[in-house]
Amino acid sequence: MLNRNTGRTSSKGSFGDTTIDDSSNAAYDKIKLKVEKNWNEHIRKSHQRNWTESKAHSSWQIFKIMAEFVDGFEALAKIGPCCCIFGSARVRPGNRYYELAVEIGKRLAEEGFGIISGGGPGIMEASNKGAQMGGGKSVGLNIELPFEQGSNSFVDKDQSLNFDYFFVRKVMFVKYSQAFIMMPGGFGTMDEFFEVLTLIQTGKMLQVPLILVGNEFWSGLLQWVKEVMMEKETNISSKDFELVKLANTAEEVAKHVLDFYKQHALQPNF
User: Fold this and answer.
1) Quick one: which of 5, 104, 106, 257 could link to 250 by a disulfide (CB 3.0–4.6 Å)?
2) Do residue 98 and residue 128 come from a single domain?
3) Quick one: 240 and 204 in the same domain?
4) Is 157 helix (H, G, I), strand (E, B) or coil?
5) Does 153 share its domain with 184?
């Protein structure tokens, strides 16, 4: 209630009479507004500072990415025609696909091709081992991964490249490999397989042999691609499906590659 004589607001409740000065209300509101304004300014400056730091970091990152591209292009351009072998990093010597990758690497090296792998263990190690056994160049494009990666001992010391960025490393694989041999593997192998297939299908790189090794491993996927993706949904054409070849032995892989290059030139893919 407003007291006409004092100009104060009074109220009565269970705790008795309470009198609040209007000037106190105004002062409180003024302080609250100032605190809120200062806090909002603090938040604004804080966000701006973080964003500025982020932009500076990104600018330096660009130079690091450029350096990886330059180093990779210069190194791989000197190596000559190579075939790339992808597959699981988790298989070990004695595994049938490990031993088959050794045979494939050796057979292709005997035909004059270098072998490019991801530089790590498993199928990568096996393919580099085969390259050395066949007298070919053994190249490793290495990248650090939390569980699997570590450069294998069969990569030529002068042909080992290290990358921080997956996408730079992928460009190196795609630009200089004259054939892609896909051994059984996990998500990384699937990623590499479908990326190369998409680049060939869309004409973003030259057509090269794309060979899936191991009918038992790949037949289910190929059946789904044919029956569902191509025939039922018509999302690809029969011509697209024919971009992929299937092989079960080192000799079959070598034949696919050699037959292709009887009619095509060896050159970087883009």
Assistant:
1) 104
2) yes
3) yes
4) helix
5) yes
